[in-house]
């Protein structure tokens, strides 16, 4: 179908590759797993995966089996680790048929994978997920010995990796981070003592990649930084990150209104002077969140202009009174140079991760 919208997300492949190389520079002795779950944080999983692999990524990480299948269907053959529950799948054969490596943390998962491998005459590999404080998924440290004992009786499965996840994505709680490292190291020693063919230990997210070398181990798992955003202000400047996404639209309509004129639903904004209002053909159905009402700014003709009134499902209004040369058709930058994901997250009461993931499917991705 031909594209007719002026609203699109421009994805810079060279920025993706650059950020991957920056992650490797931060952990030169470690392999790199590029996290491409959630459609590569809204950037497009297939194209981003290709860019990361070409730039030297050793592994790719997805949350769901379906996400891994999408990469395989696109011809991407790099090793893929299913980081999450992987969906409510009961047939482990699909993992083996598509060379997807699961995380396991319960004996029933181990048994199911072994049965599938046995039926197919293969040996499966899996990584153990250890819960070191996240409280989400993963074997608790006290449960690890029983899991390893069960694995010793199932030669059809090789436990080649150990993983965990920091509960503080920005490592803001030093005590919790240190405790997680201690538990992870104890788990690593337990797996080695049990004779597991442990090849990859991985714990470091973007923050740990940037600021915690002790967590680098055999492989790092950067996510957010690959798309050009630092996970917290403390990590700004540690690596030279280039934003990969520029979300643009255009002015669809202009109208001059007298002072006191209310704009949009609920009349939450009124003109304090005679004002020029631009209507943009983008709204919360596109991922431009309603929480940005009266708080966010966009760039119009290179000038910052504030959102004026409630963000609608399909439209957003901005005050362009102070923007010289604005016209119908003027390009508008919603997210990108001059309007960062960090800024948008702060004014919208969320985090950069959600800003990227929120950009909806009806916004075409254009790769440059």
The gist of it:
The protein is an alpha/beta fold and 368 residues long. The protein is built from eleven helices and 19 strands. Strands 2-3-4-5-6-7-8-9 form an eight-stranded parallel β-barrel, surrounded by five helices. Strands 16-15-18-10-1-19 form a six-stranded mixed sheet. Strands 11-14-17 form a three-stranded antiparallel sheet, with no helix packed on it.
Task: Describe the protein.
This protein is about 30% helix and about 25% strand. The chain is of the alpha/beta class and about 375 residues long. The protein has helices at about 15-25, 35-40, 45-55, 65-75, 95, 105-120, 145-150, 175-195, 205-210, 340-350, 350-360, and strands at about 10, 30-35, 60-65, 80-85, 100-105, 125-130, 155-165, 200-205, 220, 245-250, 255, 260-265, 270, 275-280, 295-300, 305, 315-320, 330-335, 365. It has two domains: about 15-225, Alanine racemase (TIM Barrel), CATH 3.20.20; about 245-340, Lyase, Ornithine Decarboxylase, Chain A, domain 1. The protein has an eight-stranded parallel barrel with strand order 2-3-4-5-6-7-8-9, surrounded by five helices. A six-stranded mixed sheet has the order 16-15-18-10-1-19. The protein has a three-stranded antiparallel sheet with strand order 11-14-17, with no helix packed on it. The relative contact order is 0.14. Helix 6 (about 105-120) links the parallel strand 5 and strand 6. The chain contains eleven helices and 19 strands. The model has no long low-confidence stretch (mean pLDDT about 95). It is elongated, with a radius of gyration of 24 Å.
